[in-house]
Structures are given as structure tokens and as C-alpha cells.
Amino acid sequence: MSNQITSTRILNVFPGQSEGTRLVLASECEPDGQSVLVLRQENFSPHVGWFVQSRVVMENDQATALKMTLTSNLMGSNAGSSKEPASNHVASKRTADPSSQPRLKICAAIAG
């Protein structure tokens, strides 16, 4: 796979635990026209702005499986025993102590 990207469309930006970190979900188009879903861990430097710390390309099957996992966990029995909609359940968890919440960690080696 080529490292050249012809275009990028940012789908969402998730703030990190500290002010200078974030996770970016983007769709990148490669020179051959293939579109890939990418998760980028970015850090901020006052000298250079936001820069990519690590990058994970998700294959179509992985993206589909991730969507199914997140959807089933939000809508299924793992969302809790309350009768409230999953969106309300997720919002109420955001206000709880973050250290008590499960965290999704995505790690990638930086290619040299």
C-alpha cells in the first residue's frame, strides 16, 4: 500500500484526555482511487500545530465488525438494564467518573 494520500475527509474528531491529544476518524483516498477508513492519534504542538502520532488503517471487514460491535453494545443487553434509550444511557455515563469507565485503546507502530 502506498503512503501517498490524494484526499482526506475528516468524519469525526474525538477529544483526548488531555487538551493536546485527539483521535481523528477520517476517510482517505489513495492514488489508486481506493478509499480507506483511518484512525489517527494526533498530538498538538504550539510550534507545528496538530500532527499524526500514529495511524491505523481499518479494512472494510474490520470497520463493519467495529460498527456492529458498537451498535450491539449500545442497543443490546450490554447497555444496561434500564429502559431508557441507548443514547441517554451513553450520555449519562459521560458524566460519571471517567476512571471507572472502560476505555478503548488503539495502538499502532509508527513506520519509519
Describe this structure in words.
The chain is built from two helices and four strands, in the order ββββαα. The chain has 112 residues and is α+β, with helices and mostly antiparallel strands. The model is unreliable at 81-98 and 100-112 (pLDDT under 50).
Average pLDDT figure: 75
Low-pLDDT sequence parts: 81-98, 100-112
Give the number of DSSP strands.
4
- Report the total helices: 2
Distance between the termini: 15 Å
Oligomer: single chain
- By CATH, the topology is Nuclear Transport Factor 2, Chain: A
Return the CATH architecture: Roll
Number of domains: 1
The biggest beta sheet, please? 4 strands, antiparallel
**What share of residues are in beta strands?**
25-35%
Q: Rough shape?
A: flat
CATH level 1 name: Alpha Beta
Please state how the strands of the largest beta sheet are arranged side by side: 1-2-3-4
Structural class determined from secondary elements: alpha+beta
Helical coverage, percent range: 10-25%
**What letter string, H or E per element, gives the SSE order?**
EEEEHH
Which value, in Å, is the CA radius of gyration? 17 Å
Task: Describe the protein's topology.
Layout lengths: L6 E9 L5 E9 L5 E11 L3 E10 L1 H16 L10 H9 L18
Antiparallel strand pairs: 1-2, 2-3, 3-4
Relevant terms:
112 residues; alpha+beta; Nuclear Transport Factor 2, Chain: A; 4-stranded antiparallel sheet; 4 strands; 35% strand; flat; disordered C terminus
Short summary:
The protein has helices at residues 60-75, 86-94, and strands at residues 7-15, 21-29, 35-45, 49-58. The protein is an alpha+beta fold and 112 residues long.
